[in-house]
């Protein structure tokens, strides 16, 4: 699964445009030009992994064997999306994606019932995970102020 995830992110980078001599073609600001570059998304990741929908990937994320792998991939997407908050072109789409695809992101004044429902879902997923912990996972790894 990790190989497919890595391939997805590599594909999102696009293909470097080169001239006849093999040198990178630059835009007017001196940045290299990439063809077919696209932002990584949760739906795109789901499709690249062979799932039929974004929700199918989110459901699969709860499985013990894949929770860390899928969570890390989603965190890479979250990082990219969060970085888009700082550029003018991507800010609205980034806000929408963060609020709808990642926990902990919510517009001020958003419906608290939605947040409570999300928290209940997260708690249920945690309960299921704790019922069947992965044999090589130590719960102490998740305690404290660790940023992993």
From TrEMBL:
A Pfam family the protein falls into: GP3_package
Source species, domain of life: Bacteria
Protein known as: Uncharacterized protein
Lineage: Bacteria, Bacillati, Bacillota, Clostridia, Eubacteriales
């Amino acid at each position: 699964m990790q190989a497919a995830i890595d391939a997805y992110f590599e594909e999102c980078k696009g293909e470097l445009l080169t001239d006849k001599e093999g040198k990178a073609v630059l835009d007017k600001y001196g940045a290299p030009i990439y063809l077919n570059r696209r932002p990584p998304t949760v739906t795109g990741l789901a499709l690249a992994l062979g799932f039929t929908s974004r929700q199918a990937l989110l459901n699969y994320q709860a499985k013990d064997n894949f929770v860390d792998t899928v969570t890390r991939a989603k965190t890479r997407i979250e990082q990219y999306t969060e970085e888009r908050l700082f550029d003018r072109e991507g800010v609205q789409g980034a806000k929408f994606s963060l609020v709808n695809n990642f926990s902990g992101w919510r517009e001020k004044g958003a419906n608290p019932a939605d947040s409570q429902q999300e928290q209940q879902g997260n708690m249920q997923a945690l309960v299921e995970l704790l019922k069947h912990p992965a044999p090589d996972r130590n719960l102490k790894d998740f305690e404290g102020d660790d940023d992993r």
